[in-house]
Amino acid sequence: MRSIRVKGRPHISYGVSCATPQIRRAKGGIAVKMIPVQRAVIALLTLSIVMLGLPSGLSSRDPAHGMSQMDSAAPGLHDFDFLVGHWRVHHRKLKVRLANNHDWIEFEGTLSTQQLMGGYSNVDDTMLNVPGAPYRGVALRSYDPKSQQWSIWWLDSRTPLAPLDPSMRGGFKNGLGTFYGDDTLKGKQVLARFIWSDITSTSGHWEQAYSPDRGKTWETNWVQDIQRVP
From CA 183, how far away is CA 9, in angstroms rounded? Predict the structure, then answer.
């Protein structure tokens, strides 16, 4: 869910290395320090797509299976448990980003989420019914118990050979999920932010924003409201 631009977000490209942003506060805004990510992320993305095609009895095992009691109690590990299942999604996307534009396009979509790796990872299969140009996307999330944070990667069906971009990284606090990472818009680096809010057992709200000044100001450019399919 990183971006809807034609350039797209991260995609599978074997042998391509990528980086994960490490967020820290700095004078005048938010600074992102990039640290290497192992190529195993790419293999995990491939595994996630394969798992989505397996029968439910094989791909939807008890997420706690194989976890120790200590593992299952790791802070943040269950942040995305609410998202498992099937959803209808209403999208609102800003037509032009960081251009003082106020025109939005609205469309519908679907989202299916399941857990992998005993709950330490989860994957979304997303259908975006953009008028005249529908496409699919896959979001992969992976939990790091040491930092107690999630990393998020995105694959876009429109550009399947594109390399993986740096992941979004963050977590939840008091029911609000906040994630940061670097992105590029018209050749210029911007800071991206995801926010999850208003989460219930049957609904949720997600939005993406860009900052051209490293977190001093933000413009929301994509909003999703999800409703669970009964």
Answer: 9
